[in-house]
């Protein structure tokens, strides 16, 4: 979206706080009170980003590592829900900036050169009218200068909602059914940043990292807006 258009929309529809939903004017994304309550995801495992006691590194087969600026809980859970389901697309600017900061802090030395994002189920995308991960990818791209590669991963529409899958193994199988890669994509030697909204069990990111590596990618790191504190959910 161009800057002028975005400014116009903001004037027309003042922002509501990411955390509590109160009006916060046209510049801010979060009120002062909620800003102080944001649960920063610090001190986790340097590779998977989970709290050390919930580390899932041993379960990652293809994903080289992951990071997220926020724990997925409290006001962050509510805010991401509003971002996805209530048409608050301007939260992509807020979350994308935090994700870009996380990238600079934790992944700037990894030589990552391009961004790929996890595609949304085609039916959900039609219902919402936008793909939340594509928006986040665009914002991270603006802030970091890394280009977004389009038409790499695709959602088959065959899997079920990942949240409905109970065990780690069910989630792995469901993710494998849900995603595929576009034909003839050549990623030989590429070092990629893979974007999703939330890291829960890591099955989606790991499955997609495997697809990318099968096409030649050398390294794949995940970057999400938030990450859960438990291993599986
Ligand atoms: Zn608030
Ligand atoms: Zn770990």
Give an account of the 3D structure.
With 233 residues, the protein is of the alpha/beta class. The protein has two domains: 37 residues, no CATH class; 185 residues, Rossmann fold, CATH 3.40.50. It is built from eight helices and nine strands. Strands 3, 4, 5, 8 and 9 form a five-stranded parallel sheet that branches. Helix 8 links the parallel strand 8 and strand 9. Helix 4 crosses helix 6 and helix 7 packs across helix 8. The two termini are 33 Å apart. The mean pLDDT is 91. It binds zinc ion (2 copies). One zinc ion binds next to loops.
Q: Would you spell out the secondary-structure blueprint of this structure?
A:
Elements: H1 3-12, E1 15-16, E2 23-25, H2 32-37, E3 65-67, E4 70-71, H3 74-85, H4 91-107, E5 114-117, H5 122-128, H6 132-144, E6 153-155, H7 168-178, E7 179-181, E8 191-199, H8 203-214, E9 219-227
Parallel strand pairs: 3-9, 4-9, 5-8, 8-9
Antiparallel strand pairs: 1-2, 6-7
Helix pairs in contact: 4-6, 7-8
Helix content: 25-40%
Global shape: globular
Residue ranges: pLDDT <50 for 5 or more in a row? none
Number of domains: 2
Our count of helices gives 8
Gyration radius (Cα, Å) is 17 Å
The SSE order reads HEEHEEHHEHHEHEEHE
According to DSSP, the number of beta strands is 9
Largest sheet: 5 strands, parallel
Note the quaternary state here: single chain
Mean pLDDT: 91
The end-to-end distance, rounded to whole angstroms, is 33 Å
In brief, what are we looking at here?
The protein is of the alpha/beta class and 233 residues long.
Q: Key terms for this structure?
A:
single chain, 233 residues, alpha/beta, Rossmann fold, five-stranded parallel β-sheet, two-stranded antiparallel ribbon, binds zinc ion
């Amino acid at each position: 979206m161009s800057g002028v258009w975005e400014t116009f929309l903001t004037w027309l529809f003042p922002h509501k706080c990411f955390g509590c939903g109160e009006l916060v004017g046209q510049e801010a994304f979060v009120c002062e009170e909620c800003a102080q309550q944001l649960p920063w995801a610090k001190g986790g495992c340097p590779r998977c980003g989970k709290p050390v006691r919930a580390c899932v590194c041993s379960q990652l087969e293809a994903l080289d590592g992951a990071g997220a600026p926020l724990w997925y809980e409290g006001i962050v859970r509510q805010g991401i829900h509003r971002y996805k389901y209530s048409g608050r697309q301007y939260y992509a600017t807020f979350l994308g900036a935090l994700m870009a900061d996380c990238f600079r802090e934790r992944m700037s030395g990894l030589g990552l050169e391009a961004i790929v994002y996890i595609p949304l189920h085609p039916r959900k995308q039609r219902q919402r009218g936008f793909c939340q991960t594509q928006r986040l990818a665009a914002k991270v791209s603006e802030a970091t200068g890394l280009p977004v590669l389009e038409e790499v991963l695709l959602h088959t529409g065959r899997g079920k909602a990942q949240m409905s899958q109970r065990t780690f193994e069910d989630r792995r199988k469901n993710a494998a059914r849900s995603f595929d890669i576009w034909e003839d994509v050549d990623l030989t030697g590429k070092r990629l940043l893979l974007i999703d909204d939330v890291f829960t069990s890591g099955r989606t990111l790991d499955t997609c990292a495997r697809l990318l590596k099968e096409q030649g990618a050398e390294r794949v790191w995940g970057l999400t807006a938030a990450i859960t504190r438990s291993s599986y959910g």
